[in-house]
Amino acid sequence: xxxxxxxxxxxTNQVQNRPQENVFFHTLYRTQADYPNEFMRTxxxxxxxxxxxxxSCIGPDNLGAVLNIELNEELGKIVxxxxxxxxxxxxxxxxxxxxVLNVKxxxxxxxxxxxxxxxxxxxxxxxxxxxRVIHIGNSKAVLIRDNKIMALTEDQTVAHRxxxxxxxxxxxxxxxxxxxxxxQYLGKMPQDGAITxxxxxxxxxxxxxxLCLMGLGIAKQMPAQMRNMTLIKPLSxxxxxxxxxxxxxxxxxxxxxxxxxxxxxSTFLLPGDAIINSNLASDGTINKNVNKTEEEPYTSFxxxxxxxxxxxxxxxxxxxxxxxxxxxxxYEDEYDDYEDLSREKKEKKMKxxxxxxxxxxxxxILVPILIFILCTAIGFGAMFLLFNWKHIIDGSIFDKxxxxxxxxxRLMYVINDNTPVYAxxxxxxxxxxxxxxxxxxxxxxxxxxxxKITTSKxxxxxxxxxxxxxxxxxxxxxxxxxxxxGSGAGALAALDPDSAxxxxxxxxxxxxxxxxxxxxxxxxxxxxxxxxxEAPAExEAPAExEAPAVExEAPAExxxxxxxxxxx
Length: 568
Fold this sequence. Notes:
Blueprint: E1 3-10, E2 20-25, E3 39-45, E4 49-58, H1 61-82, H2 90-111, E5 118-127, E6 130-136, E7 140-145, E8 148-151, H3 158-165, H4 170-174, E9 198-204, E10 210-214, H5 216-221, H6 224-231, H7 237-251, E11 258-266, E12 281-284, H8 310-321, H9 329-394, H10 396-406, E13 410-414, E14 419-422, E15 431-435, E16 440-447, E17 450-455, E18 460-464, E19 468-469, H11 477-495, H12 503-514, H13 523-528, H14 535-539, H15 553-567
Antiparallel strand pairs: 1-3, 1-11, 2-4, 3-12, 4-5, 5-6, 6-9, 7-8, 7-10, 10-11, 13-16, 13-19, 14-15, 16-17, 17-18
Helix pairs in contact: 1-2, 6-7
């Protein structure tokens, strides 16, 4: 909140049919009885929301003066509803002010037979160290800071619009015939369109800033250089407002002599500096012949409060003055002892306060850190549970790393031809390669019924776990051929029982299989026999595997000869 001191002065118009003006000064305003005389007020305020405004009505004198009073009454009701709000909703507040006051003026015009009335309004709202402005019409507000003057409003007139368009110069605007023709004003009928107000927000105030609201006489009829020279003078609000009115009157201005001076003494106040349950702390109601001041409600230091005996009062005064006799040394000693004790107590209190301050500082540092760590841990745990609750329920979240570690980088072999390699662990995913039986792959990890592999061509994909094995399937093919031959012999025996080998022949074959070197030894003896000249031709018959069923007798005879030779 800001601490401000404000002064307003309004003089009665000395020329007829000139704009009638009134101010809304911290809920105060000029009533009908105050119009014949000068209206002057000074106030101090520490309210969280401070509102001052100036109204200027163009129209008949009597109607304009009464309309300004009714507008102030309506504005007072709106402002009273905002005093209980900790923070002002500026957008809603400004819309309410503009709409309610415009409807008030329109109804007033209709009730008076349609007499045209146009009202300008400039409002300053101080909320803490923030200044906001609502401006409609051609009244003026400025900010004085570091001997520099900054205009807070622009005239909403036809002549000023020409200046903005570059049609005329600012000097020509003062004497332009449409200088008082308003483009925006309170009293617009619905058929005339909506009111477009200028709203300046978030203008930060500083200590010793000054704000000034001016009537049309000071703003338009008084030279700007003369006005600015008075505004930058280091004077109090009362003296500056008085000197500004006097300078304008001496220059010949006879109407629109209204001014509100606001000085921001401080933009930062402790709660004890503010006035509780009060929007206005008045230094006195000041008129021409009235000057009253209120007594200070505070007592001076060391002044007794309550019912005190006269003797105690005298002793206190003598102690404060230091008037002691020689016979009062004992009293002084007792006081010294008391002072020492009090000093010790104060030191203990200071130590305790220092210790408590250190502890409080440590708490202020550690508690937020602990809270941050705790919140981070809770958040991480919640996110972990959220994304892994299915794995936690299935128990796979704990088994998957072990399985992956066991099966990582193992050499496996494909056991079937045309084994598809999928891009993902799904049978519906895209097939990116095919493998043949016996192809080697590197098993990276397993996922359910799928295995993630890397082929010899560095293709990474997924195959069914049943399609790969640690044993090379191509090494088992010769054994399968032997079994196929044995099964073929059995089939021949089944087809031709006469050609089936006897028990002796079977035993000979077994001995031949056990000792292959001995089966070749009888061959020279068999060739040497003169009687069996056709034996070599018959011995070649087993080699002809294409038609074993036709020459069924030749193997039998040869086996008999071999058996005889073995028996010999």
